[in-house]
Structure to design on (426 residues):
């Protein structure tokens, strides 16, 4: 039994700089005191389950670089453990900061343990996926899911070592009532949110994640697991962005952030999915204000609804603007979004699009490391230093197979020709 746990936020409140804070500070190029103060205020969270001894602590929040997450997970229809472990390797190779296991196939417990054992990256899950699926498998009725089963799965996943869990605590009876009044175009597009909404409607009871929130906090506190307060009512299309259901849930999440911090539990907030470009700045700023400036984790946002097969691009456009206006953590979107589960290549494409978005936002936000990396790339280009360019590139694999010593200048990029001419006279 784990007792007397000193979480990151409790340590920060006592003025203690933990090893995890020091590692985050070193990676980010900031002082440990800066990280400690951010954790204390709740504007920074550190993803690091205290049961995972060799994992990489990752900081998310204000004043840090924008992070990206890549989702993987088995399904009964398409993908198994072997294929998902291949995706873990791609995630590591391409430089995503975090991954989530959203498995709904066979042997969810085994899959989760294998994924945790295969990487040092922080790992997130959505315990409702397992609890809901197993209730449906057994009873064919989501209303048969018990609070005890849900909370047991939450503790099991925390005990296994997951670093953060998405929990849709804000999908309450009141919020669902607002949804029904709204008459949305796309209803609920969050799987966990839909499961809980259906459970509430079928049972007439309050969401157990909300009703027994203090009990939830005690579970995650033992393992210093970060609560990612899920956006169960996120807009599933541009027409639904910013409606009363979304806003009502966000207000609830803001209250839950404060309750978590008071109990010594780290919390971040999940944000919208589909948002027209012109609405993104005000929406992100409003969410941050309503949730006490907790770190904000966004899916996209996707800026148009008509680009299936290219939603990694619509997401990168929205993600850059969202991060520029205060989002801290981008969930990747792959070309397979709205079409099916992504394969290994689509995972790579989704990660690279998100990395471009995050880096572009970091540059615009004045992140010194990001700005310096761009400056070094510019110098390498001026010097026709192909090795240096490869080392600095977000995707060095794009340099493979090109012989820069033998290629004729006219077949190279315009920069090459221009720089070569420039060097002859200046």
């Amino acid at each position: 039994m784990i007792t007397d746990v000193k979480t990151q936020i409790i340590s920060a409140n006592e003025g203690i700089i933990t090893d995890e804070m020091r590692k985050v500070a070193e990676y980010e190029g900031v002082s440990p005191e800066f990280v400690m103060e951010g954790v204390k205020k709740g504007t920074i969270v550190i993803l690091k389950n205290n049961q995972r001894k060799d994992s990489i602590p990752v900081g998310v929040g204000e004043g840090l670089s924008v992070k990206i997450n890549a989702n993987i997970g088995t399904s009964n229809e398409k993908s198994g453990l072997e294929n998902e472990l291949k995706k873990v390797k791609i995630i590591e190779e391409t430089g995503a900061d975090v991954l989530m296991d959203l498995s709904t196939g066979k042997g969810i417990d085994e899959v989760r343990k294998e994924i945790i054992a295969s990487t040092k990256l922080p790992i997130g899950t959505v315990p409702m996926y397992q609890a809901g699926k197993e209730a449906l498998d057994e009873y064919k009725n989501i209303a048969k899911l018990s609070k005890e089963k849900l909370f047991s799965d939450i503790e099991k996943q925390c005990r296994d070592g997951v670093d953060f869990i998405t929990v849709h605590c804000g999908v309450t009876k009141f919020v669902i009532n607002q949804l029904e009044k709204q008459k949305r175009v796309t209803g609920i597009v969050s799987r966990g949110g839909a499961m809980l909404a259906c459970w509430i409607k079928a049972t007439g009871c309050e969401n157990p994640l909300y009703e027994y929130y203090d009990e939830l906090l005690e579970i995650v506190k033992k393992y210093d697991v970060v609560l990612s307060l899920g956006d169960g009512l996120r807009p599933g299309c541009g027409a639904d962005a910013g409606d009363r259901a979304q806003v009502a849930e966000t207000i609830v999440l803001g209250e839950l952030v404060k309750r978590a911090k008071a109990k010594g539990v780290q919390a971040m907030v999940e944000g919208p999915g589909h948002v027209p470009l012109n609405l993104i700045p005000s929406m992100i700023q409003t969410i941050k204000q309503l949730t006490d400036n907790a770190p904000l984790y966004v899916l996209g946002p996707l800026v148009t609804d008509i680009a299936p097969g290219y939603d990694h691009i619509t997401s990168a456009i929205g993600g850059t603007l969202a991060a520029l206006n205060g989002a801290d953590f981008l969930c990747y979107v792959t070309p397979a979004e709205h079409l099916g589960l992504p394969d290994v290549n689509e995972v790579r494409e989704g990660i690279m699009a998100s990395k471009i978005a995050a880096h572009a936002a970091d540059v615009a936000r004045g992140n010194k490391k990001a700005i310096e990396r761009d400056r070094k790339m510019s110098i390498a280009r001026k010097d026709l230093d192909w090795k240096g360019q490869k080392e600095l590139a977000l995707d060095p694999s794009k340099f493979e197979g090109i012989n820069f010593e033998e290629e004729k200048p006219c077949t190279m990029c315009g920069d090459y020709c221009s720089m070569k001419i420039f060097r002859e006279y200046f």
